[in-house]
Amino acid sequence: MAERLIVVSNRIPMGDNPSGGLVVALHDALARSGGVWLGAHPETGDGSEPLEEIGRTPYQRLAFRLTQEQLDNYYLGFSNSVLWPLCHRRGDLIDMQRDYVDAYSQVNARVAQLIADIVTPDDLIWIHDYHFFPLARELRALGVLNRIGFFLHIPFPALGDLSMLPEPESFADCLAHYNLIGLQTRGDVARCLEMFRADPRAEFLPDGNVKFLDRVVSLKSFPIGIDAGAFRAEALQDAPSPFGRETPERYLIGVDRLDYSKGLPNRFRAFARYLENRTTDTRPCFVQIAPPSREQVQAYQDITRELEEIAGNVNGRFAELDWTPIRYIHRPVPRGDLARLHRKASACLVTSTADGMNLVAKEFVAAQDPEDPGVLVLSRFAGAAEDMTEAVLVNPYDVDDMARAIGEALDMPLEERQRRHDACLKVVEQTGTAQWSHDFLHALRTCIPPLGG
Question: Which protein family is it in (predicted)?
Answer without folding.
Answer: Belongs to the glycosyltransferase 20 family.
